[in-house]
Structures are given as structure tokens and as C-alpha cells.
Design goal:
The protein is 35% helix and 22% strand. The chain is of the alpha+beta class and 488 residues long.
Length: 488
């Protein structure tokens, strides 16, 4: 049996077919090859047409079916960009472009909700401030597009929309409602107080189904459009960060998944309902969360991660310098970058810093001593130190960090980056060969009952490298110096 996984990103749609027996990916496709269009009619706005996701998914599926037979696909899983808003009417027509994760127009609506409901109440019940998440985006639509709002039958996340197109079933998950900041963890149901504050009728929310399990079966229409088998079950869906953790076999308290692309993410699992009192990290229901066995994902996002490295390549490195060459350059400099510290916060406000925009800054630069190598290393250390700053918040929430799982990609290709993160955190880093759509496929295998446990599903996950902590005192000294520049 084969398992099919889709990853619906804002840049592209990816798909993987996994052999359920061996756990190996036998086909992979991505479309488009360039970044997908994001509509930005005003500063801070970001929208996409959901039909574009479906069109890209059809092209991906066409490529995948060149390698496998549709008749052999036993289950489908979905990973998707988080926090987006899709609005449909009773005929299931999309009413407007989706307001996606990086759109910031709803910030004032979330802030008003936080003030009205009370910060303490929001953090204790929702585990987050309403912020710029899906609920606040719907509030923007309600106030600014009232005629359209009155036509809304259901709202969905991007993954819910794709599942509806596949199965004709409109539903969501607890994890999805929590990422939209609709879920009351104390009441274990959608938050009546939040809905009342915004003036939403609870019927606008889709019904909930388990993250793992049959959420619907492939309709005749979808099967004909995709070339797949009618009746194939959709048995898993999750947002991209919980799914990335699943892909890296991160399910239990104390385990952490990390990525370091354009932005950087540290996603740790805790085993109790808890929150950061200053709301510097986000907390959502993890893929295996239940009310009786809590599993919450604590999400730290650093906006200025790989984008700092790419800025250095364009503006500081010599022409045609590659990222591997920049990594080699950084390796020639000792821990601490010969006294340079870089705060990597040059890509907008950081939730980690309580939504302040401190910008990127270089400290300790000496024109007579320092050059490109020191700056390259200081940038990588600064990014890692921002991760560690967030990890310390997670530790205050009860997360004991001892192991970090990551894919061998992006900044984790750098030895300096890996060694610094292991050294400053004291954690062992394990690098794996995986990606989101393959994880979604294995999630589908769990949901259809082929795998009896996460351990079985990920028993064949290929571990590529293990990095153990070294030079911890030196890294900690450099980190403490770096930290002293924050808020100055």
C-alpha cells in the first residue's frame, strides 16, 4: 500500500507518495517551481486564491501518478500553512481570497479582544493572545466587508478547504481551532467568550474530527479531477509546524523540532496545559493532544533567521559567494566571533520580544580587527542565540530540553549553526532526511490504522547525523554577552 501526503504552503504545493511497508518516499513533486503569487493590495496585506492551491495540487498529483498507480493509494494526509482564513457560502463557493498567515491587518482586532477579555483570561483559556490569528482576521472581515460577512456559512483553515475539495466534507480539528485561537482549553470546546466578543455565531465553525482518523473519503468529482480512486480516505491533517514535528517523530514532552529557513522555528512539546505569562511564544494543540492526555506544541518563530544570512550574501559577501562558502568562512572564526554580537531582528516585530521591532544590530565591530568571516559567524551565532532565548522561555513553562530534531536543510547544513545550537542549549541535535508532505503521508498511515503507533510509523526515518554538546561554557559566555544587548 502507498500513502499520499500533500503539503499546502504559501510558496508551493508539495506531494509525496510513501511506501507504507518500507517508509520510503517513492515519488515527490512540487508546483510551482517559482514562489506562488501572494496578493498584497495594501502594506501588510497577504492573500491567496484558494483555487490556486487546488490547481497546484492537481498538477502535483498528475506528476506523482506517473510513478505509482492510484489504485494502490490507501490513504491521504494533509499538511497546510497555518492561521489562514477561507470563507465559503452555503453552496461551498469561496467568497473572497484567503487572508493568509503573514497578513498583519487583523492585529488591532486581536489587541482589542485581549484588552476586553483580559490578558490573564486569554492566556489561561486560549493559551495565547488573540493576536493576528484566524479569529481576528474574521473580525476584520466582519467590520470591513459586512455584506460579504453575512453570506458566510462556514470558515475554514487552508487545510480544511483542501479536505473539503477532496471529500465534500466540511470539518476541522481541535488542533486547527486552537491555531485559529478559537479553542478554550479549560472548557475543552470552542470559546463562547471569544465568539461572543467578536459577535460570531458558533455555527460558522466547522464540526471537529480527530486529527488521525477518517475525516472523509475522496468524492467522485475530486477523483475524476485528480485521477485518484473514489472512496480513498483522508485520514490526517495538521498545520505545517505541528506536521513538521510529526515528520521528525516529535510527539512527547521534552522533544523539540526545529527549522531554519527564511524564518526560524523551535517547536517543543509539553505535557500539561500551560502558557507563557508574557505571551512571547504561541501554544497550540499538538497532533496527538487530547483533554485527558495533553500534548501541546509551544511555538517560537524568529522572523529574522535565514533572511539575515541571505541579506549578508547579497550585500556583504563577495559576488557569487555560495552559502557553503559562507559557512566555511564562518568556521575559520572562534566561538564568540572575536567579540562581535549580532541581533538578528531585522525582519519586523518579533513576538519573542513582546511584538517590538528592535531591528538588526551589530555590536563590538572593530574596523581594524574584523572582516567578513567574523560577521558571517556572528550572524549564525546571533540566530542561534535568539533560538536559545526562546528555549529558555519554554523551559520556564516546564519544557526540559535535551534533544532537538531537525531536517538536514537550510541553515542546519552549517556546522557552525549546528554546533552553536547544541553547545548553547546543552541538547543533542539529531538530523533527519524528511520533509512535510512525506510526514503527512505517514500521518495518513497512522490515521488509517496501518501504523499502530508513532514509533512504528517512524521506525524507518533515516537519521543522518548526531551532534552532541561541546564547548558549552564558551558558547554560554558568548550567549550571555549577546543577550546583554537586547532592549538597549
Amino acid at each position: 500500500m502507498y500513502l499520499l501526503g500533500y503539503d499546502i504552503g504559501s510558496s508551493s504545493v508539495k506531494g509525496s507518495v510513501v511506501d507504507a511497508q518500507t517508509g520510503k518516499t517513492v515519488a515527490f513533486a512540487s508546483y510551482p517551481s517559482h514562489e506562488a503569487i501572494i496578493i498584497s493590495k495594501k502594506a501588510g496585506w497577504a492573500e491567496q486564491d484558494p483555487s490556486m492551491w487546488w490547481g497546484n495540487l492537481k498538477l502535483v498529483t498528475e506528476q506523482l501518478l506517473q510513478s505509482v498507480s492510484a489504485a494502490d493509494i490507501g490513504a491521504i494526509g494533509i499538511s497546510y500553512q497555518m492561521h489562514g482564513l477561507v470563507c465559503i457560502d452555503k453552496d461551498r463557493n469561496v467568497l473572497r481570497p484567503s487572508i493568509i498567515w503573514c497578513d498583519s491587518r487583523a492585529v488591532p482586532y486581536g489587541q482589542k479582544a485581549l484588552e476586553a477579555l483580559g490578558e490573564e483570561w486569554c492566556l489561561e483559556h486560549l493559551l495565547n493572545s488573540p493576536g493576528n490569528f484566524t479569529a481576528a482576521k474574521l473580525a476584520w472581515v466582519k467590520e470591513n466587508e459586512p455584506q460579504l460577512y453575512r453570506r458566510i456559512w462556514k470558515i475554514m483553515l487552508p487545510g480544511d478547504y483542501i479536505a473539503m475539495r477532496l471529500t465534500d466534507t466540511v470539518c476541522t480539528t481541535v488542533s486547527g481551532l486552537s491555531e485559529g485561537i478559537f479553542w478554550d482549553f479549560k472548557a475543552d470546546k470552542p470559546s463562547a467568550e471569544l465568539l461572543d466578543h467578536f459577535g460570531f455565531d458558533e455555527t460558522v465553525l466547522p464540526s471537529c474530527k480527530p486529527t488521525f482518523g477518517v475525516q472523509g473519503t475522496l468524492s467522485r468529482t475530486a477523483a475524476e479531477q485528480l485521477g485518484l480512486k473514489e472512496g480513498t480516505p483522508v485520514t490526517y491533517r495538521a498545520g505545517d509546524q505541528p506536521n513538521n514535528a510529526l515528520s521528525l517523530n516529535v510527539f512527547n514532552p521534552g522533544e523539540i523540532a526545529s527549522t531554519a529557513g527564511t524564518s526560524g522555528v523551535v517547536y517543543g512539546v509539553i505535557g500539561e496545559v500551560n502558557h507563557d505569562p508574557l505571551s512571547r511564544v504561541n501554544t497550540f494543540a499538538h497532533v496527538n493532544h487530547t483533554a485527558t492526555n495533553p500534548r501541546l506544541g509551544v511555538l517560537l518563530c524568529i522572523n529574522g533567521t535565514g533572511i539575515l544570512n541571505s541579506w549578508l550574501r547579497r550585500n556583504v559577501a563577495l559576488a557569487n559567494t555560495s552559502y557553503p562558502e559562507m559557512n566555511d568562512m564562518a568556521e575559520t572564526v572562534p566561538i564568540g566571533s572575536d567579540g562581535i554580537s549580532i541581533l538578528p531582528f531585522g525582519n519586523g516585530a518579533e513576538r519573542l520580544l513582546r511584538n517590538t521591532d528592535q531591528g538588526c544590530s551589530i555590536h563590538g565591530l572593530n574596523f581594524n580587527l574584523h572582516g567578513r568571516p567574523q560577521i558571517m559567524r556572528a550572524a549564525q551565532e546571533g540566530i542561534v542565540f535568539s533560538f536559545q532565548y526562546g528555549i529558555e522561555i519554554m523551559e520556564q513553562m516546564g519544557l526540559k530540553v535535551n534533544k532537538i530534531h531537525a531536517g538536514r536543510a537550510n541553515m542546519f547544513l552549517s556546522k557552525v549553526f549546528r554546533d552553536t545550537l547544541s553547545g548553547v542549549s546543552g541538547a543533542t541535535i539529531e538530523l533527519y532526511d524528511t520533509e512535510g508532505s512525506a510526514g503527512a503521508a505517514k500521518g495518513a498511515g497512522m490515521g488509517v490504522g496501518f501504523y499502530r503507533s508513532p514509533a512504528e510509523a517512524f521506525s524507518t526515518l533515516e537519521r543522518l547525523a548526531v551532534i552532541t554538546p561541546e564547548h558549552e561554557e564558551e558558547y554560554r559566555a558568548a550567549y550571555e554577552k549577546w543577550k546583554s544587548y537586547i532592549n538597549q
